[in-house]
Amino acid sequence: MLEKLLSNPLFHNISIADLHRDFDGLSYRIKIFDKGETLAQQGDVCNRLVILTKGSVRGEMIDYSGRLIKIEDIAAPRAIAPLFLFGAANRYPVEVTANETTETIIIPRESILKLFRRNETFLENYMNISANYARTLSDKLFFLSFKTIRQKLASYLLRLSEQSSSFLMDRSQQELADYFGISRPSLARELGHMQNDGLILTDRKRITLLNKEALKLLIK
Q1: How far apart are CA 26 and CA 161, in angstroms?
Q2: Fewer beta carbons within 10 angstroms: which end of the chain, N or C?
Q3: CA distance 133 to 139
């Protein structure tokens, strides 16, 4: 079962021999979750690292009005919330639910600390992934700071256009709507309005920015 960890970025550049050596005597378990089963509740203490080896889950946050907001989908071979395993407030920020039958390897926090001491490459991989995850959260908060859908879209499209004014979207409309915390019809409607206003040109997943300066003015 440990061999399945080799495809996970946390174990990048670690050999199978080193993997078996490093896990010798460590506590961990394998658990399978059925579709719809909860892996973690929002607010639960995050005292173990859950690594997906098969399947996918979704992270959803319950706001103060009781509304369930989808944050992201996580598919194997990724780990769930590695950034929140440490720190004073190490609690799951979202509710994690299986999208399908999902196979996991669950490693207690104490075993992760031992892996840090045993393998410097694992420690470096963990730090890099945590830093990238923190950047993703920062970006999401940045987009959520804009009040209108048009402002969110303008900022997002301008970031994607750094290399070229014509590019392929890196998310589907549904994924982008979930990322912004809005409905897909609202997103599609605003994309249509922006095209009608001569700001962008859409061709399936390809977007061409026709008026970058006007888009920049929207987010100033």
Answers
A1: 46
A2: C
A3: 10
Tokens 């061999």, residue?
3
Q: What is the pLDDT of residues 166-175, one digit of tens each?
A: 999 998 999 8
pLDDT digits (tens, 9 = 90+) for 180-209: 878 899 999 999 999 999 999 999 899 999
The CA distance from 53 to 10, in Å, is 12
Half-sphere CA count of 26, side-chain side, radius 13 A: 24
- Which residue shows structure tokens 């996918």? 56
Instruction: Give the residue carrying structure tokens 């410097």.
Output: 120
Using CA atoms, how far apart are residues 88 and 86, in angstroms rounded to an integer?
7
> In one letter, which amino acid is 32?
I
Query: Distance from first CA to last CA of the chain, Å, rounded?
Result: 51
Q: What is the DSSP string of the chain?
A: -GGGGGGSGGGTT--HHHHHHHHTT---EEEEE-TT-EEE-TT-B--EEEEEEESEEEEEEE-TTS-EEEEEEEETTPEE-GGGSSSTT-B-SSEEEESS-EEEEEEEHHHHHHHHHH-HHHHHHHHHHHHHHHHHHHHHHHHHT-SSHHHHHHHHHHHHTSS-SEEE-SS-HHHHHHHHTS-HHHHHHHHHHHHHTTSEEEETTEEEES-HHHHHHHT-
